[in-house]
Design brief:
The protein is mostly helical. It is about 65% helix and about 0% strand. The chain is built from 7 helices and no strands. Helix 4 (about 95-105) packs antiparallel against helix 5.
Length: about 200
C-alpha cells in the first residue's frame, strides 16, 4: 500500500473511531432525550393514576345503584308475550289482565299454568260476575220515587183496615185508598173474583 493510501485509511479510521466514540459518549451520558422520556413516563403514570381513581369511583357508584334498585325477577316481567297469552286464553278486559298479573306475582305460578290455577280461576270468575251484575243493573231505571208498599190499595185491603194519617202521610194517596176500599166493599165484599 502506498503512503497516501495509508494516511487516508488512517484518517478514515480515526474519524470513524471519533464518531463512534462520540455516539458512545452521547449514549452513556444523560441527555435531553432521556429527560424527555422520563417526563413523558411521569405524565403517563399521573394519567394512569387518575384513570384508576375514576374507575374505582364509577365501580363503587354502579355497586350502590345495583344495591338500591333490585333487578326484576322472572315473575315481575310482564310484556307483550304475556298479554298475547292472556288474550288468546280469553282474558280481554284490562281489569281482568291486571287481576291475573297481580295474582301471578302473588302466587308465583308460571305464566303457562296461571289460568289453570283454581285460585286464579275463582277470582277471575268472581270479577266477571261482578261486572255482569253491574252491567245488568246499570240499565234498570227507577221512577225516582221511593217504593212504598203501604201506599197501595191491595196492601190495605189485604190487611183489612183503613190507613191512618201516621201510616200514609200523603192525604191524596190515603183518600184514594179509602175510596177504592169503599168501592170494593160495596161489591159484595169480595176482593177477588173467586172469593
Amino acid at each position: 500500500m502506498s503512503t497516501v493510501e495509508n494516511e487516508t485509511a488512517t484518517v478514515e479510521h480515526e474519524t470513524t473511531t471519533e464518531e463512534t466514540a462520540g455516539e458512545y459518549a452521547k449514549a452513556t451520558e444523560p441527555s435531553n432525550d432521556i429527560a424527555e422520556l422520563r417526563s413523558m413516563i411521569e405524565d403517563q403514570s399521573k394519567t394512569i393514576n387518575a384513570l384508576q381513581g375514576r374507575l374505582e369511583r364509577q365501580t363503587k357508584k354502579t355497586e350502590r345503584t345495583k344495591l338500591e334498585t333490585p333487578e326484576k325477577t322472572k315473575t315481575e316481567e310482564f310484556g307483550l308475550l304475556q298479554q298475547a297469552f292472556l288474550r288468546a286464553a280469553g282474558v280481554h278486559e284490562a281489569d281482568e289482565i291486571e287481576l291475573v298479573r297481580e295474582l301471578q306475582q302473588k302466587t308465583g305460578v308460571d305464566w303457562g299454568k296461571v289460568l289453570d290455577d283454581d285460585y286464579v280461576k275463582h277470582r277471575l270468575e268472581g270479577l266477571r260476575e261482578k261486572k255482569a251484575n253491574e252491567m245488568a243493573t246499570a240499565s234498570v231505571k227507577g221512577d225516582g220515587s221511593p217504593s212504598n208498599i203501604k201506599a197501595t190499595t191491595e196492601y190495605w185491603q189485604g190487611k183489612g183496615e183503613r190507613p191512618t194519617p201516621d201510616q200514609v202521610p200523603d192525604r191524596k194517596t190515603r183518600a184514594k185508598i179509602i175510596r177504592e176500599m169503599a168501592a170494593s166493599e160495596k161489591s159484595d165484599g169480595k176482593v177477588f173474583y173467586n172469593d
